[in-house]
Specification:
The complex is a heterodimer of chains A (149) and B (356).
Chain A (H helix, E strand, L loop, with lengths): L5 E3 L4 E6 L2 E6 L4 E5 L1 H10 L5 H12 L3 H17 L3 E3 L24 E3 L1 H7 L25
Antiparallel strand pairs in A: 1-5, 2-3, 3-4, 4-6
Chain B lengths: L3 H21 L2 E8 L2 E8 L25 E7 H5 L20 E3 L3 E6 L4 E6 L4 E6 L7 H5 L3 H10 L3 E3 L2 E5 L2 E5 L7 H10 L3 E4 L3 E3 L6 E4 L3 E3 L26 E3 H4 L8 E14 L3 E4 L2 H15 L4 H14 L2 E7 L2 H14 L3 H5 L2
Parallel strand pairs in B: 2-3, 3-7, 10-16, 16-18
Antiparallel strand pairs in B: 1-2, 4-5, 5-6, 6-7, 8-12, 9-10, 9-11, 12-13, 13-16, 14-15, 17-18
Helix pairs in contact in B: 5-9, 7-8
Classes of the chains: A alpha+beta (149), B alpha+beta (356).
């Protein structure tokens, strides 16, 4: 895990940091996610190919928390994000990400992700927005649109 | 799943066919201004597609001599005699599981709605687009409410703006963006404001330009409300259409109820997220930019799945740039409008907010 690197699974997933939080939208699955606290602080590194070990170091220095705890919780977090197809592994042969400045001092809040899937339900009940009438957004269980760009 | 290469090939074939129609079929040209930019709509002259464009009537600019930034062809497939090529990805019975659905390529964007029988196609390299309807007579009413919205969102994104799933109203050229999912109170709030003399820019889809501070522009002069809230707008009853069908939202054209107060750009001062609270008086509670983005972005992005990252970034910019409020609504529309008037009057210059 230590040397593994990950990136945002674009273009199917898009993410934006705002006001110390991160909002992520899965365009294929129709769900969205938010990260806060330590998860949000680590996100710019985690989503741009910084090695996991370097992220553990940065968070440990920022939060004065032991590396073993951070590494263990970060590994679970990464698996959760991979399970949601938010992150994908970076080719080990690719050029590593540029160095990030140290994270500001903060309280360690652990790594969590909030998942929202209410949008599809809202769309399904709103015929004005054509749900079920075309390729996307699809009725539950159907196939998502393709983006080849 | 359709092979992307096959989708691309079908798209090329569609472009050839529709461009051939553009050269050979009679059209009537009308000029409009969207977000201040000149657009030429070439409407098939033998069909009935012109009947679908009332929603953009206030944007008409008949004497416009400026070269059009976008040439949009509007076809009534049956009436104009413009048929799509036979292809498995365009068959109704195969979609959406194997249909064309959404397609995004380097310069071509396409979106196919098989049941509605609507194809939207945008060629950004040549500034040309086609909005093809299988048969205007059977086209769903929501296409009347927001014609060629997919073309519009692809095009405005290239200008640095965005088409948002939001309402917008204002006074004296200043405006408030009203965000939130369907059923949250956007339309009712907008109509309450229109009734109180506000200018109207949107009840559902609004164009945001690339300026800082941002401006909201009319996209469609339509307002739709839940059937259950129709009684709140009894004064407009004679103007509402779709009253006979339970599966359609009642809809009216704003130019019929507020002539002269629709179409002007609004310099945005704030974003509100309405919440139906049945309060005696409407109250505004500050919320974080992140909370507002959670309300604003998912429905806008998911209704326009090929809008991409640029639109998401523009939405995040809006939430950073403008004060964000949750509007805890009263039941009385006059109170809602009065509170919106007060918020607009009290909103500082946008630069002052951004500098905080």
């Amino acid at each position: 895990m230590d040397t593994q690197r990950f990136e945002l699974n674009s273009p199917n997933v898009i993410g934006e940091v705002i006001d110390g939080e991160v909002m992520i939208i899965d365009l294929v699955g129709g769900t969205y996610f938010s990260l806060a606290g330590t998860s949000a602080a680590a996100w710019p590194m985690l989503s741009t190919g910084v090695p996991v070990a370097a992220i553990v170091d940065a968070v440990s220095q920022s939060c004065s928390t032991d590396k073993a705890t951070i590494a263990e919780e970060l590994a679970v977090f990464v698996e959760a994000l991979r399970g949601e197809s938010i992150l994908r592994p970076v080719d080990p042969q690719s050029v590593p990400a540029a160095a990030f400045p140290p994270l500001p001092a903060a309280t360690y809040t652990g790594f969590t992700v909030a998942r929202y899937d209410d949008m599809r339900a809202l769309l399904v009940v709103d015929p004005v927005h054509e749900v079920g009438d075309f390729g996307w957004p699809q009725a539950p269980g159907s196939t998502p649109p393709r983006s080849t760009e | 799943m359709i092979d992307p290469t096959l989708a691309r090939d079908v798209l090329r074939e569609l472009v050839v066919e529709l461009e051939r129609a553009a050269r050979e079929y009679p059209v009537t040209t009308r000029r409009y201004r969207f977000a201040g930019v000149s657009v030429a709509a070439h409407i098939g002259a033998r069909g009935n597609a012109h009947n679908l464009l009332r929603a953009i009537e206030p944007l008409a600019s008949p004497d416009d001599t400026e070269p059009a930034a976008l040439s949009l062809f509007v076809w009534d497939g049956l009436g104009d005699g413009v048929a799509l090529p036979e292809s498995p990805v365009l068959r109704r019975e195969d979609a959406p599981e194997a249909g064309l659905g959404g397609y995004s390529g380097p310069s071509l964007r396409a979106f196919y709605q098989p049941n509605a029988g609507v194809l939207s196609l945008y060629d950004s390299a040549h500034g040309r687009a086609h909005w093809w309807l299988r048969d205007v007579a059977t086209t769903p009413y929501y296409e009347f409410a927001a014609p060629f919205k997919h073309v519009l969102q692809w095009w405005i994104a290239e200008q640095g703006g965005a088409l948002l799933h939001s309402a917008a109203v204002g006074l004296d050229g200043n405006g408030i963006l009203i965000a939130g999912p369907s059923g949250s109170g956007k339309s009712s709030t907008a109509l309450a404001c229109v009734d109180a003399g506000f200018e109207f820019a949107s009840d559902d889809y609004v164009l945001i330009d690339a300026r800082h501070p941002p401006r909201a522009h009319l996209a469609y002069a339509t307002a739709k409300v839940l059937r259950s809230s129709l009684s709140r707008h009894a004064q407009y009853q004679q103007h509402f259409g779709n009253l006979a069908r339970d599966d359609e939202k009642p809809m009216l054209f704003i130019q019929d109820v507020a002539p002269g107060r629709v179409g002007a750009p609004l310099a945005l001062k704030a974003i509100v997220l309405p919440t139906v609270m049945h309060r005696v008086t409407t109250r505004f509670v500050p919320i974080s930019p992140a909370e507002m983005l959670r309300a604003l972005a998912p429905s806008s992005i998911m209704l326009f799945p090929l809008a991409g990252n640029a639109a998401f970034r523009r939405m995040a910019d809006l939430c950073r740039e403008l004060p964000c409020w949750r509007a805890e609504l009263a039941d009385d529309p006059a109170d809602v409008a009065s509170a919106m008037r007060g918020l607009l009057a009290a909103s500082p210059p946008v630069g002052a907010h951004a500098a905080r």
